[in-house]
Amino acid sequence: MSNPTAITADDGVPFVDTVREFDAPVSAVFKAHVDPDLLAKWLGPRDARLNVTEYNATTGGSWHYESGHENAMYGFRGVFHTVDTDELIIMTFEFDGAPGQVGISTTRFEEIDGRTRIVAHEVYPSVEARDMALATGMNYGVIEGYERLDEVLAA
């Protein structure tokens, strides 16, 4: 059984906060966030395909992937601002369909008795941009992606 995913998007601020625990050590959860082959196995909903074209998860590195279905693939890109192994990832994100609408994501990895809690804080360029991301089903993709990550970690 998966752990619950708490996603908070308060009215009037361009933030999305996500908290999730995993029954795996920090090193494994962190690796699944920085290894492009592992990322492709869990990020997003089950019915979507993820094609990672660039993923240099180091401080100053860049990333790009496409996600979606055969007839509708959507590109996303960004830059890794800070990557501290097993502790922190700070990165920008931008949807290719909304150029210039760059957000920033901070994900902390916390060890709790051999388990891992991730705490993510995303800042969008506006409340409207955040609401548009939420309206596209982002929450569903995050929740199902973390369920898939549970499966990757268990394997």
TrEMBL record:
It comes from Paenarthrobacter aromaticivorans. Residues 23-153 form the Activator of Hsp90 ATPase homologue 1/2-like C-terminal domain. Pfam families: AHSA1 (PF08327). InterPro entries: ASHA1/2-like_C. CDD domains: SRPBCC_CalC_Aha1-like_9. This is SRPBCC family protein.
